[in-house]
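WARN no homologs supplied; continuing
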Amino acid sequence: PVNRFCAASNNRTGFLCDDKVTCVPASQVCNTVSNCRSGEDEQEELCGDLPRSLPGHLVFRCSNPAYWVYADQRCNGVNDCGDCSDEMGSLAACPPCGSEWWNCSPVLYEYCSCVPRRLCRDGIQHCHSWSDEYIC
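OK structure emitted
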């Protein structure tokens, strides 16, 4: 099999199309929309038995073995696994919160250890400690 690994925008893991130029972000592979000119990102061979049919570099396995997410959803700030294993801990190996994020743990709702700074002082509690409303 051809190595189809590539780096899409923001250095996110991607799938290289047959044209050897187009790099489709992992989470846009097998989404019923052809992003490659010849549609190879939606072929049955690739998408027939998710996640087993996908190349390993496109898949991140959550700490709960019943769940997986696309590799570009790891460290994106959102709790895609449902248990934050794609955002925190040794499996994910995410860098600390970037400048656009406020670090607080635990957080409420869909985030894990960082919330977007745009949510600071918006009148809604996102951090368990309320730090996003009073300190951030």
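The chain has a mean pLDDT of 91.
OK
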